[in-house]
Input
Amino acid sequence: MSGVERAAKLYDVSSASGCRDIAPGNEHDLPDALALVELALRCPEAAKDRFPAFRLTRLVGSRLDLDERDIERFSDLIRVEAVLDRDDAPRPFNRHLRSVIASYRLGALFFEYGAGLHHHAVRPAGYDFDLDEVNPSGMERWRSDYRSMSDERQMLAASIIWLYRAGKDNVWLRRVPCTWHAADAIDCMKSNDALADWARLFALYPGW
Output
């Protein structure tokens, strides 16, 4: 492929509505998840044009496919410090998870269960883990509390659920807002000073 042909295939950020003065970045050299983040930080509309069906749930789920180098690049994009330590991975995530739950008043949605170490003891409410089944009244209350939250709090709560489930969820996040485009979610959390906290959850995640 010639240089001219390759250039023709690259997405022109300046063609997106509202992004006339945005210069092309390096998103074409990144995995899709990081490319979307890079572009969304500069121009959400451009990110939506290039990745029209890329929801926040897919972005969170992509964490399992990213290696340490990818997470370093992600942290640089968001400008957050997220040092991964193979020997002590659960502790930083556990501390930050609990800080996010407290700071964003998500305590109605998550609780301490059993004797699990670190974040493994944190579980979503509304479910009877002893019987391994939904608690109907508890789940109704969980969803009601979730619906009453602002968008950025919902995005953080939903992201914690997706990290807990290591992917999509149809237990807690049924019939509640959770289908945001990833670019819209990034823009919303950035506008409400929640993006750095979300990004550290994403980057520090060691599995559940």
